[in-house]
Amino acid sequence: MSANSSNDELMGRNKPPPLFFSSRRFAVGSAASAAVLAACGSAPGTTTGGASAPATTGNAIELSHWYHQYGEEGTQQAAIRYAEEYSKIKPNVKVTVEWTPGDYGAKLNAALLTPEGPDVFEFSGPILDLVNAGQVADLTDIYGDARSDFNEIGLQANTVGDRLYGVKMIDDMGLLYYRKSLLEPAGIAPPTTLDELGAAIQALNTGQTKGFFMGNDGGVGVMGDMLLWSSGHEYLKDNKPDFNSDATVAAFKKGQEFLAANSGAILSGAPTDWWDPSAFTQNLTAMQWTGLWAMPGIRDAIGDDFGVMPWPAIGAGEGRPATFWGGWSQYANAKRPNVEAAKEYIKWLWIDNTDIQKDWSLAYGFHVPPRKSAAASAEPLKTGPAAEAVTILNQYGRPLFPNWTGAMGTAWGDAVNNILKNNADPKAELDAAAQKVQAELDKQA
Amino acid sequence: MSAVTPRLPPPRRPLNTGRLLGQVLTYTALVLLAILFLIPYYIIFRNALLSQPQITAFTWTWLPIPPRFENLRAILEDPTAPMLTGLRNSAIIATVQTSGSILLASMAGYGLARIPYRWANQVFFLMLVTLMIPGAVTFVPSYVLVASFGWINTLHGIIVPGLFSTFNAFLFRQFYLEFPSELEDAGRVDGLSYWGIYRHILLPNSVGIITALGLLGFIGSWNAFLWPLIIGQRSAYWTVQIVLSTFLTAQTINLPALFMGAAIAVLPLLLIFIFAQSYIVEGVKATGIKG
Amino acid sequence: MSVQSVPTSTAAHASRQRRRQLRTTLAFWGFVGPLFLGLIVFTYIPVLWGFVLSFFEAKRTVTPTTFVGLENYLTLFRDRAFIQSLITVALFALFIVPATTALALGLALLVNSITRGQTFFRSVFFIPTACSYVVASLVWKLNIFNGLPFGLANMVLYQFGQDPIVWIGPPNPPWYWLVLVSVRLWLQVGFYMILFLAGLQEIPRSLYEAAYVDGASGGWTTFRNITFPLLRNTTAAVVVLNIIAAFQAFDEFINILSGTGSSNINLARPPLVYLYGIAIGSQDFGLGTAGAFILAAIIIGITLLQNRFFAFGREERA
Which of C47, C127, C149 sits opposite B273 (nearest CB)? Predict the structure, then answer.
């Protein structure tokens, strides 16, 4: 019955727990899970697309390849097309694409516990536990010479010890978008410090159109990471917490003042959240923090009336601008029988085939291809705000760590929330979180 | 509530001004509450027939005029969101799961209530305990278990684990405990076995409770999400709720499609409700949760 | 339960009795067996398995090798966030249980007191049960309680000359509780109303008539002296079911507060949401199942406190 509980629930025996939602926050475990976002567009769904395999010769190998559901139209068809192309080159390999709506993390994680799981899958999050559990195969040897062509930060997310376990397929980042037509007449320059950002927010707020939008939580989720990075520090450094230094504590104090002074002029409770550009394009706000993925949608809606910048530095000569550097990578399931075939397929698709990488990153949504040469030669990224974005990413993008686990993310997120929402003492909160994170790190050792 | 206390209450003269006023107030309250309760459904069906910008627009659109029926066509024709397959799977799963679990639960309820087995109470207690254990405990082991049966990507992998409802068995037991034993005795005199009594005397008298629990079970089954998601991995095994979730990705929400889908998904339930609802109160009375 | 008849000496008699007992046993398991067997496979084995896991370090594996004793339990008891989640859910129960009970009873009384249109009103209050949490949550977040002037709630406020409120997000004042409580109320109150209606209809009309003759005026007096006492069992059932459901709160919290990169879930994170993050998100099954068992113990404790009003107490009547 509806009041019923427990076990019956998850099995659908009685009242539902219909819980589709984005559990990315859990999967990645920190507010920076934002970083895993792909793109913006409108929604397609799914079916499995199998390559209708040509008559196979020899022993046919079947690989199942899992994707989460991308929001952009055409992505699923593209993934199927790549798989079919591979079958043309390798007639004895048949790749089945499985497109997963809903809670991809839950489904993937469950499947990885059994022998039934995917052969090739994408994932976005800390991989240390996967490596320790023997769920992902070592991919170091398929990189070959191409290794130096992948950007370092992308490699870092997939490195455990000195081995590489995944191949980055897309890079994502955040940007502060502003309306030129609102800033220029008011004589406001794009803000380069937190104080300037505050001043701009106040000046741009008209009540109807707010000054800034960075999420329906008042921006707390986004701001935590940005304050840390813009203070010049990281989650971890030399395998130790790096987020409770004096500079970061000072940055959070500044963040508290910033919110106290400006939250009235910052949009909150909008119908869509920060990762969707609607609030910006529908004039609910003059500036918004959202992803690179939103750029095509923004251009469609408001033409060239926008500029982009990174999250501003803490103060003049203090700290540095920042943005997150996230994305998705591909992995081979070490527990499946055809690991070698899976590795070969990954190599063909995400290492050798730069045309496909460019197609995947840029033909549907808007991401940066992880190979430097591909990013540099991609036409859409050569001019205007897109080119600026690539520069910003390379200059200011901050990495995620393969061992920054969900538990650490929760400790960090709780501290950030207590500081920025409940005005708790930054020093005490960050120290407490650092202690928890250190305990987790000790367990990893 | 009524302010006036008549000195000599006339036992059968229902309509004095006090009672009339009372009725007017009652109806007014009911109508207001009914409007309040219907607002969310109004919004669902309204959103289903609007465009995305209209749903999130500055100004509230009261009625979808003109209604965008292309939303319906769009989701029925979307090859990446197989709505019809989803509806079919959901119908099969919900029907089989509901009827199966009702049968098993009513049998168990009868056994627990009416067969004087020495350990019946202990067995009953063991079953009750499972009600209080959150599904989070069993979720992952269950998955691994079902996977080891080779039931991934099958409908029975979704259906079978949901067949065993302790809660329903508990309610059936309550019902059969209060069932007049004279009827049962009469059956025994006629030479009926336990099965015969169950089949010919108790079941025919359980229509109310079967309808009530069946309806609630059907809703639960129809709306279930996580289990069908991880078991039915290929789109051929998706339920309607999974199909719905394709409109709600981490990056985008296709609101008109989502609400049109939600409207389609809830419609069968509403129809069944209207059809079955007269049984529900009777059924609940039968379960013995009452005064 | 089973009546031991006085043995009348002969062995034949004893064996006949044994045979009857055997028949009873077989019949019992014939009826209860299918369900019980299913429970063994799909509930008891997973529960035991989970219980074992809770004493191991089990990350991304369900066949762990590192035994850690009570470590997972101790970790949780020391975990401020987990304790906070228990407080959160207790607070939630404190809101939702009385609200649901009162509203369900109120609706039942109203519906029961009218002569025309009972079916209609009963249906209207009951059909929200058919809606899923996902869809309801979306409607609440998007259309009713969005923070802009054009959300439905803010439009109503505007009519009274009030400024729009950002319902979900700010910690003070905690409007988000209104959102969370109202969505669950809408979804579940009709179900409990049905329970009360069933209870009300079982109260013999003659009792009211007798009270009437004795000079009772109806209304509050009869409610206090007749209706409510006779609904005691129903009320107890409603309260217990409600508490169990409240302590397992999950869906509306996830669907309304959680979101990519959003920290709103920190406003109110019930234990199942926290544990879901640990077990399903981080794949730490040891810690996750330990937490779920703590929660189960709490729920069982509360239920046992109530049991003399409900469930176990009733079987004596058989």
Answer: C127
Least reliable range by pLDDT among A223-232, A298-307, B108-117, B136-145: B136-145
The confidence score (pLDDT) of residue C218 equals 63
A76-83: which pairs have CB atoms within 8 A and are 24 or more residues apart? A76/A44, A76/A45, A76/A46, A76/A47, A76/A49, A76/B80, A77/A49, A78/A359, A78/A360, A78/A363, A78/A364, A79/A49, A80/A49, A80/A50, A80/A51, A82/A349, A82/A356, A82/A360, A83/A49, A83/A50, A83/A51
CA dihedral sign of residues B143, B149, B150, B152: negative
ipTM of the complex: 0.85
Q: Does A15 score more than 90 pLDDT?
A: no
CB atoms closer than 10 angstroms to residue A7:
30
- Find the radius of gyration of the CA atoms of chain A: 22
Q: Is B193 inside a domain boundary? A: yes
Give CA–CA dist A431/B192, Å, rounded. Answer: 74
CA angle C289, C290, C296 (to 5 degrees): 85
User: Quick one: DSSP state of residue A65?
Assistant: E
In a domain, B179, yes or no: yes
Interface with A, mutate which of C43, C192, C260, C300 (most A CBs under 10 A): C260
Q: Which residue from C232, C248, C315 is facing B134, i.e. has the nearest CB?
A: C248
- In a mutational test of the A interface, the residue from C283, C295, C302 whose CB has the highest number of chain A CBs within 10 Å is C283
Q: Give SS3 for B3.
A: coil
The string of pLDDT tens digits covering residues C246-256 is 999 998 998 89
Could you tell me if B123 and B138 are in contact, meaning their C-beta atoms sit under 8 angstroms apart? Answer: no
- Measured between CA atoms, the residue of chain C closest to residue A16 is C132
**What is the distance between the alpha carbons of residues A96 and A231, in angstroms, rounded to a whole number?**
45
| Same domain (yes/no): B66, B79 | no
CA atoms of A434 and B254, how far apart (whole Å): 40
| Residues in CB range of C248: below 8 A, 6 or more apart | A5, A6, A9, B134, C272, C295, C299
Q: Are A229 and A322 in contact (CB under 8 A)?
A: yes
State chain B's mean pLDDT as an integer. 86
Q: Which residues of A touch C61 (CB under 8 A)?
A: 113, 133
Q: Is C125 on the interface with B (CB under 8 A)?
A: yes
The answer to whether the CB of C238 falls within 8 A of the CB of C192 is yes
B97 and B197 share a domain? yes
Chain centroid to CA A327: how far?
A: 5
- Cβ–Cβ of C258/A416 closer than 8 Å? no
**Residue A300 and residue A183 in one domain:** yes
Distance from the C25 Cα atom to the nearest Cα atom in chain A, whole angstroms = 28
Are A21 and C134 a contacting pair at CB < 8 A? yes
Q: In whole angstroms, what separates CA A29 from the centre of its chain? A: 12
Are A378 and A295 part of one and the same domain? no
Mutate to test the interface with C, among B133, B171, B211, B243 (most CBs of C within 10 A): B133
Give the range of the structural domain holding residue A119, as residue numbers without chain letter.
24-172+327-398
**Residues C40, B108, C249, CA angle at the centre, nearest 5°?**
65
Residue type, C154: N
User: The domain containing residue B52 runs over which residues?
Assistant: 17-70
Neighbours of chain A (3+ CB pairs under 8 A): B, C
**CATH classification of the domain holding A151:** 3.40.190.10
What digits encode the pLDDT tens for the residues B212-241? 889 989 999 999 988 998 999 888 999 999
Bridge partners of C120?
Answer: none
pTM recorded for the entire structure: 0.87
**Per-chain mean pLDDT for chain C:** 87
CB atoms within 10 A of CB A154: 26
Number of domains within chain A: 2
Alpha carbons C93 and C181: distance in angstroms, whole number: 10
Encoded tokens for B274: 């209207």
Provide the pLDDT for residue C308: 56
